[in-house]
Amino acid sequence: MLTIRIGNLTFASPVLTASGTFGYGDEVSDLVNVDLLGGIVTKSVTLHPREGNPPPRISETPFGMLNSIGLANVGVEKFCKEKLPKFKKMDTHVFVNIAGYAIGDYVETLERIEVEDSTISGYEINVSCPNVKKGGMQFGVDPKLTEQLTRALRDKTDKILILKLSPNVTKIEDIAQAAVAGGADMISAINTVVGMGIDIATRRPSLNTVFGGLSGPAIKPIALANIHKIYKSVSVPIIGIGGISSAKDAIEFMLAGADLVQVGTSNFINPAIGINIISELKSYCEKENIKSLHDIKGKLEYQ
Ligand code: DHB
């Protein structure tokens, strides 16, 4: 009932965990049975290790959270040695999120992972990080660069290629179409919305970098609008992301056009939230007599 088939991949459920909110899956495996999830998307991996931005780099907001982590990660070499082998024990889809500054960085990072004998299902390409000075979002705001980057990566892998898009653009449909033209198998959206917070006592911004990325329930309506726009403009499968913390939220994304969803910020409140949503979805399908969640994709009703 909750099984979703996309190409030759079968997802046990449509709920995945979003990049940067669930580590590499192994950190929480004592608390959560990750095998019940539809999949895991790793924290972004870059070609070289990164310390990330100085603190404060996380700050709470009403109904959300601002972050400016700055791509802190162990780098692809250590990732391949220490993290990749652990995925062999997991019976769920793992997608490695890759970030970079130039097309060559993304390609080298992906190629380094490709030579390993791994069990990963594919890659989520981050063209939408708002928290670094160079690269990241630069790709995600430019259709030509998005297409070029996607094609360069498409040439190097037969695994699933997901492009993760930014909402901080004028027309997300153009970026989605460019990703598909370059050979993307799926689109995931949205990444965080550029925001800032201010502490009036100190008159300082709440994040060291001043600007950061807003996530959580506060951005759900923005995410739904973007998912629906993408759904209207491309025919590849879509992964909805943005403030999902219940089955009701997940269903809203599916009605707007998503095939799968990712749960992000809510993992910080409860790392088992994805599993809870899966059992809520099962009850919903039973109650509403829905045979497959595929049947409600894009079934939003209006003239
Ligand atoms: C970071 C934030 C993002 O929103 C993203 O997509 C990738 C990385 C970060 O600050 O580390």
Keyword list:
16 strands, globular, binds 3,4-dihydroxybenzoic acid, 303 residues, TIM Barrel, 8-stranded parallel barrel, 4-stranded antiparallel sheet, alpha/beta
Fold and architecture overview:
There is one protein chain. The chain is built from eight helices and 16 strands. The mean pLDDT is 96. Helix 5 (172-181) packs across helix 6 (220-233). 29% of the residues lie in helices and 19% in strands. The radius of gyration is 18 Å and the shape is globular. Helix 2 (103-114) links the parallel strand 7 (93-98) and strand 8 (122-126). It has helices spanning 75-83, 103-114, 137-140, 143-154, 172-181, 220-233, 247-256, 273-288, and strands at 4-6, 9-11, 15-17, 39-41, 58-61, 64-67, 93-98, 122-126, 160-164, 186-189, 193-195, 198-199, 204-205, 212-215, 238-241, 260-263. By secondary structure, it is an alpha/beta fold. It has one domain (4-296): Alpha-Beta Barrel (TIM Barrel), CATH 3.20.20.70. The strands form four sheets. Strands 3-4-7-8-9-10-15-16 form an eight-stranded parallel barrel, surrounded by six helices. A four-stranded antiparallel β-sheet has the order 5-6-14-11, with no helix packed on it. Bound molecules: 3,4-dihydroxybenzoic acid (DHB). The site of 3,4-dihydroxybenzoic acid (DHB) has 16 residues, from loops.
